[in-house]
Model the fold of this input.
Amino acid sequence: MTNQLNTSPEFHTVDINNFSRDLTKLLKRVKAGETFIITEYSNPIAEFQPLTAKDFVEIYGTVIEDADQKSIRGCSISSPEVPEITVESPGV
Done:
């Protein structure tokens, strides 16, 4: 399964600087179901949206094992292997 951008018309945009400054507040809103498109100079660069455990398994093919990882308050996220991506520039 390929992770695709949320095509719902219900999303908000937030500049990367405001995203960095307000991350905790935005995370609370994402947990409540809101989606944000992060922009840099008005160009979309990322999507910040809710992710269920089922979605995580479908996208990454694994689960997060809290019991096997030592962390503050028992919560941690390990980074999955990121495949190398080849970007082709359009002809000018």
Q: What stands out?
A: The chain has a mean pLDDT of 75. The chain is about 25% helix and 15% strand. The first helix runs from residue 16 to 21.
